[in-house]
Amino acid sequence: MNEEQQLRILEENASQKEEIKELRNAVSILTQQLDYLKRQLFGQKSEKLDSDQPSLFDVPGKPEDAPEEDPGADSAKGAAEKTKKKRKIRSNRLPDHLPINRLELTPQEVLDAPQDWRRIGEDITTHLEKDPGYFYKVETVRGKYVPLNNPHQAPVSAPAKPTIIPNGYWGAGLLSEMLCNRYLYALPYFRQSTLYSQRFGVELPRQSMADMAESVATGLEPIYKRMKAQMLASGYIQADETPIRYLDTNHPNGSAQGYYWIYRGANSEVIFDWRTNRNHENLGKFLGTSFIGVIQSDGYQAYGNYCIAQRLLGKEVKRAACLAHIRRYFEKSLKGSHGHIARWFMKIIGELYQVEARLREYSCDSETRARIRKIQSKPRVVLLEKAVLHLSGKMHILPQSYLGKALTYARNQLPDMHTYLEHGQVEIDNNLTENALRPTVVGKKNHLFIGSPEAGQYSAVLNSLLLSAKGCSVPPEQYLRDIIERVPTATNNDLDALTPAAWAKAYHAAEAAKAASTSLAA
């Protein structure tokens, strides 16, 4: 065998070894993907940890006053405790606040001769019942009057009550129910129209519903703008976005994909901003150039670019990362070949959430939250950063694997986790904003799309008001009905009292006063 043949054999061997290495890497990645898909199909889809991993959210170390465990405890006691843990507390199926209609049944023989019988007790069974709602017409009568001493004078009458829809014939109660059904309970206009027609014999065309919704949104837009101004002035905003299709006759396919950009302030109000695309400049159009404070978001680059651009203009704008998004990447890699590494990251992240749970339990203010986070949370965030930098680029962790992707995402996001450590009003994650998206996500599975590009902003206004009222823990339908009745006569000075946060404050104060008066009367 000459030297040329030997070189060729060595080159072939090297090529085959490289190919084998690539195939092994591909098999490893595909195996992880297959395991993840199996878990999605057949396993638990919740992001909660498995029951065999309770220690991941426990702070390490044992309290000094904790009692020592008895190694000889009775096994029956352990089985009883296990059974007790599985037992769930059933919610009250028959709420106490509902009125009671009592129906008494008497045997026929007692009815025939009541003087021969003595009542010694009773058996009571209770069930939940409901009567369907009903429609009714309201006639507003405005009498015309002339003075007795001058019957030829022009008659006088009470001025007509202004309504949010000029010359509209739908009342505030009907409008609020229709809009709550649409935006909170994902009931499209067509289904509502069918229900009202078949159950009540009232014809409410779906096109009329859409027109009414547009008119109501236009009338309530001043409150929406006041909410936005207050949110921008607060200095802390959580942001996210979600896609939703809309009909467009100018589009080749007849429909296109638009986006709701969702912003949440510190007072539980959320604002939806409708855009026909996901371009970075949409964030700047909403926030403007005067915003100063903190923006919390996921890893979408638009938020980071906006903060950088504002800082170049001399504005103090910081971005806060979302720990929940970082956690999700590591959660996906729990079952992979490097599951022990992912479990370590999950454990440290769990300790950070444990700190936040204690802060919420004691209702700590912003200053206290920042001080405790500096002592307890900051060392763990720094530890996560060091671990990510140490593991990034290691040969045995493929960049395309779930753990590799988790490390890459965490490396880019962890520097912005320091913002929540420095600002006590900032949350540890963006979950509150994502929770506000859920009714919208469910809704678009039912009504599929928005009717036109222009209708997107009308939906954004109504979504903002209803979901903000829900977030402020007040009945959304009651809130919407009240502001529909009050807006036509409201001035600019009245708008502050009509925002969901202000209305909720007055509502809870009235409920507390009512409860106090009831207890005193009792």
What labels would you give this structure?
six-stranded mixed β-sheet; alpha/beta; 522 residues; 6 strands; 53% helix
Task: Sum this structure up briefly.
This protein has 522 residues and is an alpha/beta fold. It has helices spanning 3-42, 75-86, 108-112, 172-183, 189-200, 206-234, 281-287, 301-312, 323-332, 339-361, 366-391, 402-413, 418-422, 431-447, 455-471, 476-486, 495-498, 500-521, and strands at residues 236-247, 255-264, 270-275, 293-296, 317-320, 449-450. A hairpin with a 7-residue loop joins β1 and β2 (255-264).
Description:
Strands 1, 2, 3, 4, 5 and 6 form a six-stranded mixed beta sheet that branches. With 522 residues, the chain is α/β, with parallel strands linked by helices. The termini are far apart. The relative contact order is 0.11. The protein has 18 helices and six strands. Helix 6 (206-234) packs across helix 15 (455-471) and helix 15 (455-471) crosses helix 16 (476-486). It has helices at 3-42, 75-86, 108-112, 172-183, 189-200, 206-234, 281-287, 301-312, 323-332, 339-361, 366-391, 402-413, 418-422, 431-447, 455-471, 476-486, 495-498, 500-521; strands at residues 236-247, 255-264, 270-275, 293-296, 317-320, 449-450. Helix content is 53%, strand content 7%.
Number of strands: 6
**Gyration radius, rounded:** 32 Å
- SS-based structural class? alpha/beta
Estimated share of beta-strand residues: 5-15%
The largest β sheet comes out as: 6 strands, mixed
Order of helices and strands: HHHHHHEEEHEHEHHHHHHEHHHH
Mean pLDDT: 85
**Helix content range of the residues, please?**
40-55%
Q: Report the uncertain regions.
A: 47-73
What is the molecular shape?
A: extended
Distance from N terminus to C terminus (CA atoms, Å) equals 109 Å
The DSSP helix count reads 18
